Amino acid sequence: MKRVVTMRVLNVMQRPVRVVRQSDSMRTAAVLLAEFGFAAVPVVDDHDRLVGMLNSGDVLRAGTASSETVGEVMTAP
């Protein structure tokens, strides 16, 4: 029988939480993902509300030279 281990998000999350803004460039987002080794990063609006996620696949599809903003490329709920 497998043993179930309970883990709280608080125990594995990093602080401060790294985010990108909808208005950020794809280059800015790509640098953040690479610098911290993230596969994805939360996207927030001007009021710091979560509006989506940006993952490495989104960045690869758009490219870092893209004129699109994070908000145009992100995955929205």
UniProtKB/TrEMBL annotation:
Keyword Secreted attached: no
Record InterPro entries: CBS_dom, CBS_dom_sf, Diverse_CBS-Domain
SUPFAM superfamilies: CBS-domain pair
Zinc-finger found in the keyword field: no
Residue ranges occupied by any CBS domain in the UniProt entry: 13-69
Pfam family, any one: CBS
Keywords of the record: CBS domain
Identification of the protein by name: CBS domain-containing protein
Species of provenance: Rhodococcus opacus M213
